[in-house]
Every structure is written in C-alpha cells, then in structure tokens.
Amino acid sequence: MALKKAMILVHHGPTTDRIDVLFNPNEYVMESSNQYSWQTIPGLSQPIAQFISGEATTLTMDLFFDSYEKRTDVRKHTIQIAGLLDVDKDLHAPPLCKFVWGTLQFKGVVEKVSQKYTMFLDSGIPVRATLNVTFKAVQSITEQFKHIPRQSADRTKQRMIKQGDQLWHIAAEEYEDPGMWREIARANGIENPKRLESGTVIKIPRLYG
Predict the structure, then answer these.
(1) What's the topology of domain 151-204?
(2) Model pTM?
C-alpha cells in the first residue's frame, strides 16, 4: 500500500490553500529545547540553572522536486514553498501552516528555506531541486495552558504580585481557566482588577467542586 502524499495547508485568515509535495521526504527531524539562565555563585564549582521557558519545537526536512520529464521549470513548484516566508498582505505576517503526513500534523510557520538546484536543461532552466525546509511550532496562550500540567488548586495558596501581573493570567496558571479571575478578586477584595500593586500578597482561594 502506497504511503499517502504529504501536504502543506496554508491558512490565509478564513481561507485555506493546499500545497501537495511532489515526493514524500525520506526523513524528518523534530527538535525541542529549553532555555535556562546560568548564574555563577562565588564558592560553587558549577553555576546554578534557572529555567526560563521552553523553546518552540522545530520540524526540519528535505523536500525533493523534479520536473525533468515534463521539461518544465521546477521553480513553479519550489516557489510555493519559498513563498511561505513572504508576508501575507491581509495578515501582515507570514501565514500559519500545517504540515500533514500520515499521523504527523505539525502546526507552525515556515522559519527557513534553503534551495539547492541540481539539474538544468540546455537553456539553463532548473528541473531538479532539493529544498531544506524548517517549520517552527506556533501555539496560542490558551493552547499552551491546556498542555501544561498545573498544580491542583485544592487548597488556599498565597502569591506575590509582580510587575505586569494580571488576574486573568494568574487564574489561567492556577486554575487552567482565565475566567476564574473573579474568584481571586472576590477573595482579596479587589474592586479594580486592572490596578494591581507590585509586592502585594494575595490569596489564591481553594476551589470547591
């Protein structure tokens, strides 16, 4: 049974275009990493690691294109992939894409494309190319909170307000529901959630099922 052809779904706001690859990749590489701050402490033999955040996962592959038999310019195909780096005039940013191949569904943006042309007609028109393409995962704040395991909010906790903190963000972290900010405001007598004073210690109330 032949393996289904891979495709790239390109989202232009409310519309979606489809780009079918000519040949499935032989392999692909997915890379994930974390970002740390390394602090040197006098008297210690090693620096102290402080976790900052996770890095977006990347998906990298080589896509092969060949139009020799048809004697046509292979760039008619490769321009579709390289064009995913261009800014969409309606979105004011490159479009969001999804690479779909079997069970692999990778949503993100095209971060980098390297084009290598290896065969030409006598006229100089390229008819064979290999594109090294890197996709970078993109997730909204809501999607990220859904996948981050959070401490169960089964008891009252305390938390110090930091510069830039918002109640909805705190509720999302503590309860996995930004809409629960009202429970925190009510428990702390906060009348204006937009005016949070840095350094103030607030209670994170227990949730009752």
Answers:
(1) Membrane-bound Lytic Murein Transglycosylase D; Chain A (3.10.350)
(2) 0.65
